[in-house]
UniProtKB/TrEMBL annotation:
Gene Ontology cellular-component terms listed: membrane
Domain (Molybdopterin oxidoreductase) ranges: 15-135
PANTHER family for this protein: RESPIRATORY NITRATE REDUCTASE, RESPIRATORY NITRATE REDUCTASE 2 ALPHA CHAIN
Any Pfam family the entry gives: Molybdopterin
Source organism (scientific name): uncultured prokaryote
Molecular function in Gene Ontology: oxidoreductase activity
The encoding gene: narG
SUPFAM superfamilies assigned: Formate dehydrogenase/DMSO reductase, domains 1-3
Protein name: Dissimilatory membrane-bound nitrate reductase
Length: 141
């Protein structure tokens, strides 16, 4: 096992590099050679039923492989640009389980989503709706 170091933490289970599901990464790399525009490469993946099926069928099977930060950032950016172009910015949704427990990550992700017109959601969006809606769903007690 290769030792991995992240700040003061050293453990074989701590990842300091991104991993991507192998079938998706292979598609991405193959199509990126053909398309100079990364958004076009992403479109070639999601608009082709055979490509889409190949990487979606691999979900839940593991098979993650190492990638680079530049590569995964390009995949994420391309998928976000494609989604916004095709379906609108409100189709990009970020979720934080409990914002008060991870202020830095919540602030960074909510800022990003706000800049692109995405939607910020948290555990509280669900939890806080329970009391007012409970009589509608559960009946009066």
């Amino acid at each position: 096992v290769e030792p991995v170091t992240l700040g003061i933490y050293t453990a074989p289970t701590v990842l300091t590099y991104p991993k991507v599901r192998k079938p998706l990464l292979k598609l991405w790399r193959d199509l990126r050679k053909i398309h100079s525009n990364p958004v076009d490469a992403w479109a070639a993946i999601v608009e082709d039923p055979v490509h889409t099926k190949s990487y979606k069928e691999a979900r839940g099977m593991g098979g993650f492989v190492r990638s680079s930060w530049d590569e995964v950032n390009e995949i994420i950016a391309s998928s976000n640009v494609y989604t916004i172009k095709e379906h609108g910015p409100d189709r990009i949704v970020g979720f934080s389980p409990i914002p008060a427990m991870s202020m830095v990550s919540y602030a960074a992700s909510s800022r990003y989503l706000s800049l692109i017109g995405g939607v910020c959601m948290s555990f509280y969006d669900w939890y806080c709706d329970l009391p007012p809606a409970s009589t509608n769903g559960l009946g009066r007690t």
